[in-house]
Amino acid sequence: MSDQSRLGIGSSVVAPLLEVRGVTLQYKTQDHLVTATYRVNFEICPSDRFVLLGPSGCGKSTLLKAVGGFLQPEEGEIRLKGVRVAKPGPDRMMVFQEFDQLLPWKTVKENVTFTLLKSGRLKGKAAEERAMQYIRKVNLVKFADSYPHTLSGGMKQRVAIARAMAMEPDILLMDEPFAALDALTRRKMQDELLQLWEDTRFTVLFVTHSISEAIAVGNRILLLSPHPGQVKAELNSNGRDEVDPKSGLRLSDKIHSLLFAEKVEERGPVHHD
Amino acid sequence: MVREEFVCDPIKDAALGVVEKPLTKWERVYNFGALRKLFIILVLAATWQAYAMWLGKGLLLPTLTATANALWVNVASGELLRRAWFSISVLLMGYGLGVALAGLFTAIAVSSRIGADFLETMTSMLNPLPAIALLPLALIWFGLGNGSMIFVLVHSVLWPVALNAHTGFRSVSNTLRMVGRNAGLRGARYIVSILIPAASGSILSGLKIGWAFAWRTLIAAELVFGATSNSGGLGWFIYVSKNELEIANVFAGLLTIILIGLFVENVIFRNIELMTVKKWGMQN
Predict the structure, then answer these.
(1) ipTM of the complex
(2) Which residues of A touch B279 (CB under 8 A)?
(3) pLDDT average, residue stretch B150-179
(4) What CATH class does B77-275 carry?
């Protein structure tokens, strides 16, 4: 897989799939009105693996929920394929961090067909076949008739991903889906997600607080600084934490210094003339 | 000192010998809760029989054998079964209506804040009021007949069921709610597809409590109220037997009430739980 295809270069001629323009998000707690993000701008192109990365308090999850339609922006707008996002819908399927996102009263197969049936996208046999197709992609065919409480954490997240992908939505929204998993399973799930992307080339907006996960999963990374969340930088990633020849910095170090405003140390030979 | 590294292969399944072995027959039998409890009941029954025989006062405490005999005679004549069925049928009418109303009130409560306020206010005022205390009022309003019984039963069922259902709905996790909205569900479809199954633990709990209140209220009302038309329920049977000093019949009636209660809780409700919340891992 060439670097170019991994980076998504060559897709700039296509119109953006998701546009976020000047979005300010606020929410109410018991006593305060908190501004989560301030005038955030970004664009996502089809087949992008776009990552929102930042420390806690930078509004990345709130931004994801706004794209999902769960809250309305105070300022600015969010458009999917040119249409304003007004309320939640199955064209923007979400995968959450919590394991209890699966319906415990339905089997794995019924969970995956749930949205297909409820949204009216497919009926009966067709829905079942589509569900089994995606259950096969996440290697859970043997567990199709099991109830979620009998599955491990990693398996539950795979079912959630299959459920989201089975709808073949315009964009997949993932809110730190691997954060609650142990580190070994997390690595495995990141690799599996990339394999799924190779297979179907879906578009995903992925939220994480882990720099290494952002570099591994994303082809485009938006850095957000906290309190309130504002765009700090937008970087490319080819999946490898390489040294950038121009600045002499490793990508993870560059991101770390941008996010935490530490002094940047130049690597490589310094010439005194 | 640097220690040498090594790698070894774990032993394959077959060569490990037995990793799982089944429990012994005795362990399996003892695991069976019902058998343990049956043993306790047998001990209690033997104590009762011994004490009653020693006491020798049939009007105060008939022996177990006398009670069993009374039970048998009344079942054989069909009397006890008729009365039990009468009680149960009135109960089912009141219970059914109460649960339906609870469903309606809860649906309203979940859809608007004023609805929730209404339900909470009504429940906190009326839940503490014992249904039997409403019986005199019911008699004035609905006269002598099934109407007042059902009114009283509905009161005893409605508030606990609505309260439990409402609490259950409020406890549904935010993630599940978002999953439902993400799928495009709203309004009645959202309540039926997401809230009701997610709250099934609380709802079942409320239904059990409602049943318990209704059954007790019914027997008490029958004792106080008396018969309607020609027939009467188990409470009436106990009252009449007491008046005729047929104390063994009284005990037989009490035993029937207990048996019906045990059946509903340990067979009906337990099986519903096994098929729903326990199968889904939502309750241990």
Answers:
(1) 0.85
(2) 147
(3) 94
(4) mainly alpha
